[in-house]
């Protein structure tokens, strides 16, 4: 969840300053703000799970989180096209 909040704050700073972000920085920020982290927390809550932090800190779970974010970013970029988000 911290990644998500940090990403949103970073995105707000860029938008407010009218700073142009290169593609690599944009994608790194987008991976944080895509919303996967909060979704995982909602899924845990919805199913009534109370998983210990050690589960989420496990390297395999961290890798799954990275892959989920990457797939979501690729899907969004495919739908909007490469310039759909980068130019906004």
What does this structure look like?
The protein is mainly α and 88 residues long. Helices cover 80% and strands 0% of the residues. The chain is built from six helices and no strands. Helix 1 packs across helix 2. The longest helix is centred in the C-terminal third of the chain and has 22 residues. The chain is elongated. The relative contact order is 0.13.
Question: How are the secondary structure elements laid out?
Answer:
Elements: H1 2-17, H2 23-33, H3 36-46, H4 53-57, H5 59-80, H6 82-86
Helix pairs in contact: 1-2, 2-5
Q: Which properties best describe this structure?
A:
88 residues; mainly alpha; 6 helices; elongated
Which class of secondary structure composition applies to the elements?
mainly alpha
H-E order: HHHHHH
How many individual β-strands?
0
Point out poorly predicted stretches.
Answer: none
Strand content: under 5%
Query: Roughly how many Å apart are the termini?
Result: 25 Å
Describe what is shown at a glance.
The chain is mainly α and 88 residues long. The protein is 80% helix and 0% strand. It is elongated.
């Amino acid at each position: 969840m911290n990644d998500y909040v940090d990403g949103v704050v970073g995105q707000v700073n860029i938008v407010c300053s009218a700073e142009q972000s290169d593609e690599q920085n944009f994608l790194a920020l987008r991976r944080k703000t895509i919303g996967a982290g909060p979704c995982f927390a909602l899924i845990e809550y919805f199913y009534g799970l109370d998983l210990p932090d050690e589960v989420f800190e496990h390297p395999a779970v961290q890798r799954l989180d990275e892959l989920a974010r990457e797939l979501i970013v690729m899907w969004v970029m495919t739908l909007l096209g490469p310039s759909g988000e980068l130019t906004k």
